[in-house]
Design brief:
505 residues; mainly beta; five-stranded mixed beta sheet; 11% helix
């Protein structure tokens, strides 16, 4: 088979390596020597120049010489000598006067009191003929939220609408395209941004639902909604507002509807739903009587609520305006049971009215409490008047003619105690200054075609120079107010106190 055998190794030498080593050569190179040199320069001459004005006495001599060369107007010297004593006497009186001690000079251009900055539009809403029903500024003052619906539709409607927002601080602001559009299954009748959280917006719908949207959620912005439960409203919600609760930093939503119900909701973050915290019903028979009012209760039916306002001075007080022109001061702490059926509510309805003001001749569309005086508020409605009221008197302190048409909203200025604005059915916004000698409007804002009613307005608390205005043509106009309409004068607060201390006739 196979056996091991040892053989001698065989070596083959490389001829290529040997030939390469034999052909190697060495080469070298070097650059030429680099020569360097140093040189210095220095200026040899210096020049000094100077200028000087002529002595002052020479200029005076020249001026006097020129004046002597010209002919003196006849009678000028006699006139100056004759009035010298009178002029000096008046100058001394002016120097001792205190008439302008608190006067503040305004160097701004006074040619325009108001100017339109933006005209915001949502194409889809305008194509469907939707109206702007409410506007509200975010707590940062940069975002304006707008609700769309209808103000002329008295029948039940299932038409869809939307809520749009624009950030005015964005460089890429497009007035004809909203930054955010929230589709809503019913007309939106009320809107209110959260006072602390810029992403939250509360809304009231024509269907009776109350909704809170979270604009930071891109997929489903609906945070909570009442739905069509036993606790929810059964009529259109015409007012929503955020209410501070007893626990610091927490807010509830107060809603009012045309069925005479005012409901206070809290948000259950764990369940993601509304919880009815308290309910109030406005029943005619339970209204307080006043010798200064001619109101007479008829029947036991509730009255429809069209406007509502919270007092910034008293957390227990809120004001309510009704479809029949009634104006009521109400209390959250009222324990009187309402003489109305509960309609399936999980809480006992209470009667909140504690004071009745003199009724108006038509529905009260808007109420707003003064941010500078605890007893003053302003109301407006279909009578075309703006009434300045005191919480301590039934009759208004002052009534001003705003328009020959309806007044849809009225609001005090956040920085001027004596200034308020009113949106009219004629499409104008009238700004009144109670400190002026005349009760005529201090400024008028008018934009767009005739016949387009101004349905809502909102001052910007963080940027008082801005005012937003919504109209029935589907546009939201942002106006800039001048210094005169935004800066408080030194004696303005005392003038407001004088108005509040008046006794109504």
């Amino acid at each position: 088979m196979f056996t091991d055998e040892a053989l001698d190794p065989v070596k083959v030498c490389s001829l290529w390596r040997r030939s390469q080593q034999a052909e190697q050569e060495s080469r070298g190179c070097q650059t030429r020597a680099v020569h360097s040199a140093e040189a210095e320069v220095q200026t040899r001459w210096a020049t000094i120049s100077c200028t000087q004005t002529d002595p002052q006495y020479q200029a005076k001599e020249q001026l006097l010489q020129q004046s002597h060369d010209q002919l003196e107007p006849p009678g000028l010297k006699d006139f100056l000598q004759r009035v010298e004593d009178t002029v000096i006497r008046e100058l001394v009186r002016n120097a001792r006067s205190h008439a302008f001690d608190e006067f503040q000079v305004n160097w701004e251009d006074q040619n325009q009191l108001v100017s339109c900055l933006h005209c915001l539009q949502h194409a889809s809403a305008q194509e469907r003929g939707l109206h702007v029903t409410s506007v509200s500024w975010s707590c940062t003052g940069s975002v304006i939220a707008c609700a769309y619906g209808r103000i002329d539709d008295g029948d039940w409607s299932t038409e869809r609408s939307c809520v749009c927002t624009w950030n005015l601080d964005r460089r890429t602001l497009n007035p004809k395209e909203a930054d955010l559009v929230i589709d809503v299954p019913a007309a939106v009748t009320a809107l209110c941004c959260h006072p602390n959280q810029p992403a939250l917006i509360a809304g009231g719908l024509y269907s009776g639902e109350v909704v809170v949207w979270d604009t930071s959620r891109t997929q489903d912005p609906v945070l909570v909604q009442t739905g069509m439960s036993a606790d929810s409203h059964r009529e259109p919600v015409y007012q929503v507002t955020w209410v501070p609760l007893q626990k610091k930093g927490e807010f509830g939503v107060l809603s009012a509807c045309s069925g005479g119900r005012v409901l206070l909701w809290t948000v259950d973050s764990d369940q993601g739903s509304f919880v009815l915290h308290a309910g109030y019903a406005l029943v005619r028979q339970q209204f307080p009587h006043s010798s200064n009012t001619s109101f007479k209760a008829r029947g036991s039916s509730t009255v429809g609520v069209t406007s509502l306002a919270l007092s910034p001075w008293d957390p227990d007080t809120f004001l309510v305006g009704s479809e029949g022109g009634l104006l009521l001061r109400c209390s959250f702490s009222s324990q009187t049971p309402a003489a109305a059926p509960s309609e399936g509510h999980n809480v006992t309805l209470r009667a909140p009215a504690v004071f009745l003001f003199r009724p108006c001749s038509g529905p009260v569309h808007s109420i707003h409490c003064s941010p500078f005086h605890r007893n003053l508020f302003v109301s407006a409605g279909t009578d075309g008047l703006a009434h300045v009221h005191s919480l301590l008197q039934a009759n208004p302190l002052l009534s001003l003619r705003v328009s020959d048409s309806y007044v849809f909203q009225v609001q005090w200025s956040p920085t001027r105690p004596l200034v308020f604005a009113a949106a009219t059915g004629q499409g104008e916004v009238q700004i009144f200054d109670l400190g002026s000698r005349s009760l005529r409007p201090a400024a008028t804002m008018e934009q767009g075609g005739a016949g387009q009613a101004a349905t809502c307005l909102a001052f910007n608390s963080h940027n008082p120079h801005l005012l937003a205005l919504g109209k029935t043509n589907g546009t939201v106009c942002v106006w800039r107010l001048s210094h005169d309409l935004t800066e408080q004068s030194p004696r303005e607060s005392s003038q407001l106190e004088q108005i509040a201390n008046q006794v109504a006739e």
